[in-house]
Amino acid sequence: MEKKTEQQSRKRRNRSHVGMDRLSSLPDRVLRHILSFLPTKSSVRTSILGQRWRHLWAYVPNLDFDNENQETINRVMLLRKVQTLHTFLLYHKINCTPYQLDTWVTFAIVRNVQKLHLYFRYQIALPRCLFTCETLVNLTLDSCGVVPASGPVCLPRLKTLHLSFVQFEADESLPHLISGCPVLEELVMEFLLDMVLCCISSPTIKFLVFNLVADGRKRVELNTPALGFLEMSDSFSEHIESGALNSLFGADIELHNYDKERDDVLHSQTVLEFAGRLCNVERLKLHLAYDTSIVDSLLSAWTVSFRNLTELELMADYCFLLKMLENADNLQVLTFTEVCSCNIECFHLSFFYYVVFTVLRFVVVVVVVVVVVVVVVVIVTCQYSDEIERAAEPPQQVPTCLLSRLKMVEFGCIVGHAYELEVIRYILRYSKVLERVKIVYDFCIGSEEKINMLQEISLFRRGSTTCEVAFVRYAV
Predict the structure, then answer these.
(1) DSSP 45
(2) CA distance 271 to 276
(3) Which long-range contacts (CB under 8 A, 24 or more apart) does 307-313 make?
(4) Residues 48, 49, 53, 58: is their CA dihedral positive or negative?
(5) Do the Cβ atoms of 344 and 322 come closer than 8 Å?
(6) Does position 440 have pLDDT exceeding 50, yes or no?
(7) Using CA atoms, how far apart are residues 74 and 70, in angstroms rounded to an integer?
(8) DSSP per residue over 126-176, as a string?
(9) Residue 18 clears pLDDT 80, i.e. is over it
(10) What is the pLDDT of residues 361-419, one digit of tens each?
């Protein structure tokens, strides 16, 4: 028995040595490439594997520091053998002086760094040399530094720029920075807090993502003729202006305006004009949450053609949905959810009632429960009757996409209002090539109401003989 155990142990050791020998037999350049995918701390640890590995980490072209102390960072830099540096990643939670950061960034720049990522959890002055690095291709600044509004900016090779929780000295800081990036293709900006005017102008940007946080009224100006994809989440912008977006093939847009003092006519013009700039997209995600007050007269006159649009995810009211169906002749896939102030408040009220009823059902006083139910019904009926009875008039002429293109439709958070059912009925009846309709009903609908609604929809006339209708309960 002992002999068998010893033989098994010997075999395991041999297999381990074989694996190590196979790895050690690889050329140094391959081993350095493998080590480049590891954090620097792990790469340095491989020096204990043997004589050949002792200094191999020092020739790796990347440095990746994750919360290392300053002494460790300085020592690693001092012991490096190679004079070029491809990637420098610094994730640092420990406070360091501007002088120390300047030393590290300068170390990377003089070694022709191409990819530089700085992550801090506190604000620290950015070295000026950072904005004149001629070898940088990819730059990420996260929670650190202030972008200056003046001074030299020369980043002739920079193609990718990510800015997150970065402060700007003035509104002119962003245009000043972009002007020094003549080949910039990708710009990602998240949580812009201190800008009143966000101006993005570049003839080369192809991919743009930005998020404006609601901390006051803002203005957005876009001049990006080469833009191919746009992702935008905007709060409180009074005005959004954009030049031609003829190259745009995809967009993900969320507009949230909670300002109760806004001018509805001006706001409607802004939303419709900006949406019209997206007319060349093939795929569009458009969320107009809390922006349901698009003036009817302006929406009726909106005739922008979305001739290339094949996939649409829309969060708006039913009037806007029907207008999009009119304007998108080649639409094939539609996902629609209605969100308005009425529905949101009804949702909270229904949820509140559900909780109250759950507690009160243990109370024997049936009269109190009945009174609560009556009061809630009266409040909801009186306060929201105008909105609930609102109906979206179907187009006088059946949209082209329904007759020849539309194949997949999903309705989200259906509660059974008459106007919801009329739109569903209309689409089912006139869609000639429809293959599948998915109806997600709200979780707060009562069992009897749900059954009645689903039965009614199931009996709707269908223009497509192959169309399947699926019902799914909304999951919170």
Answers:
(1) H
(2) 8
(3) 307/279, 308/249, 308/280, 308/281, 308/282, 309/281, 309/282, 309/283, 309/284, 310/282, 310/283, 310/405, 311/282, 311/283, 311/284, 312/283, 312/284, 312/285, 312/286, 313/284, 313/285, 313/286, 313/287
(4) negative
(5) no
(6) yes
(7) 6
(8) PPGGGGG-SS-SEEEEES--EE-SSS----TT--EEEEES-EESSTTHHHH
(9) no
(10) 444 444 544 444 444 444 444 444 444 334 556 777 899 999 999 999 999 888 888 88
Residue 9 φ/ψ region, left for φ over 0, alpha for ψ in the -120 to 50 degree band, beta for the rest: alpha
β-strands 62-66, 115-120 pairing: unpaired
- The first and second tokens of residue 332, run together, are 């094939």
Q: How far apart are CA 153 and CA 156, in angstroms?
A: 9
DSSP sequence for 274-337: HHHTTTT-SEEEEE-TT-----HHHHHT-----TT--EEEEEE-HHHHHHHHHH-TT--EEEEE
Residue 214 near residue 234 (C-beta atoms within 8 A): no
DSSP class of 462? -
Q: Which two tokens stand for residue 472?
A: 């799914």
DSSP character at residue 48: G
**Interatomic CA distance for residues 149 and 128, integer angstroms:** 12
Can you read off the two tokens belonging to residue 306?
């979305």
DSSP state of 73: H
- Residue showing tokens 């139910």: 373
Of 289, 321, 285, 329, the C-alpha closest to 305 is 329
Close Cβ partners of 315 (under 8 Å, ≥ 6 residues apart) = 286, 287, 288, 289, 336, 337, 338, 339
Q: CB count, 10 Å around CB of 88?
A: 23
**396: how many CB neighbours lie within 10 A of its CB?**
6
Q: Is 23 within 8 Å of 33 (Cβ atoms)?
A: no
**Statement: the pTM of the whole predicted model exceeds 0.85:** no
pLDDT at 39 over 70: yes
Q: What is the mean pLDDT of residues 126-133?
A: 93
Strands 115-120 and 87-92: parallel
Residue found under tokens 């949101």: 344
Top-confidence residue, 257 or 110: 110
Which whole-number Å values give the CA distances from 330 to 117, 230, 285, 382, in the listed order? 42, 21, 16, 41
CA dihedral 213, 214, 219, 220 (to 10 degrees): 30
Rounded distance between C-alpha atoms, residue 372 and residue 319, angstroms:
34
Decide if 291 contacts 268 (C-beta within 8 A). no
In the predicted model, is pLDDT for residue 86 greater than 90? yes
Residues with Cβ < 8 Å from 90, sequence gap 6 or more? 65, 73, 104, 117, 118, 119
Q: CA torsion sign, 65 to 68 to 69 to 73?
A: negative
pLDDT, mean over the chain: 82
